[in-house]
Design goal:
Two copies of one chain form a homodimer. By secondary structure, the first copy, chain A, is α+β, with helices and mostly antiparallel strands. The first copy, chain A, has a single domain, classed as Hotdog Thioesterase (Thiol Ester Dehydrase, Chain A). Chain A contains two helices and six strands, in the order ββαββββα. Chain A has a six-stranded antiparallel beta sheet with strand order 1-2-4-5-6-3, with helices on one face. The radius of gyration of chain A is 15 Å and the shape is globular. Chain A starts with 34 loop residues before the first strand and ends with a helix. At the A-B interface, helix 1 and strand 3 of A face helix 1 and strand 3 of B. Chains A, B: InterPro entries: HotDog_dom_sf (IPR029069), Thioestr_dom (IPR006683). Chains A, B: It holds the Pfam family 4HBT. Chains A, B: This is Thioesterase.
């Protein structure tokens, strides 16, 4: 399995929005999830750390939820960026999304020590609201299914709170 | 706000099931969520680390999802333990749950640097399946709502996969 996306949307987020613990390239302590296109689907590949345990030998659900979360916002960013006429690497900054809601169904215990592959399908449900449905595989085993409602981050996001 | 639950169910999980990255007392790298009763509700108080950033100044959603997840399984454990005639500290090992599904609605950005309080209501929907509805507060602000379906861990959980 490929270990990473060659071109990832998180590599091109503006610096101010690149501190996410899940997917921010500037957050040294974080997971560094990287999300890119694979055909019409989006893909994030991540190998959990040894400490990310649920019970010994299996991956902690909170890390799987985190993977689905950032994969969701990243996938929505990729899709809106494309809708806006851009592709990664063309110099335009991709739009940044926040998570409105997150749902995860844990189908099977997820084995540790192998790369997890999150595969997403993105659908626009409103110009500023996108739904991302994700399946997380360990090798060929479907371990979790997720759905994220991702919302375009308002430009005055922080000031508004 | 109280900083921790005086008696927490995670303090009494069997050693083999105390390695969870979210709430395992034996996982040195983990969050060490601790869940106890407060009247008829369950409570987990946790202050995210400085690295747990979404955007600077606000808490990463994956950590909030993790808090809701372990608060859910811990709350279900507390409730079934009580149904079985036990209270924390009486020497009986509480039952261990796994997460069937996790849902989080992010209501407001969650400020960093203050303790988060997850408050849960537990409902039995099947002898082996419990629903936990949780609200997460930063001071008096409701930042997230969550629902966990927690399932009693089969005794042969790992062997069955």
């Amino acid at each position: 399995m490929e270990k990473t996306s060659v071109k990832a949307v998180q590599d091109e987020y503006p610096d101010d929005f690149a501190w996410c613990y899940g997917c921010g390239r500037l957050n040294e302590a974080g997971h560094h999830f990287r999300t890119g296109w694979q055909g019409e689907q989006t893909v994030t590949v991540y190998t959990p750390e040894q400490d990310h345990t649920a019970i010994p030998g299996f991956v902690y659900g909170g890390v799987i939820a985190s993977l689905i979360d950032c994969h969701g916002t990243g996938s929505a960013s990729l899709a809106l960026h494309r809708k806006n006429g851009h592709e990664l690497g063309d110099g335009a900054e991709p739009p940044r999304f926040v998570t409105g809601s997150l749902h995860v169904d844990f189908m099977k215990p997820t084995p540790q020590g192998i790369p997890l592959k999150a595969v997403g399908v993105v659908e626009e449900i409103h110009p500023k609201k996108w739904k991302v449905q994700t399946e997380v595989f360990a090798n060929d085993t479907l371990c979790a299914r997720g759905e994220v409602i991702a919302v375009v981050m308002p430009s005055n996001f922080v000031d508004k709170q």
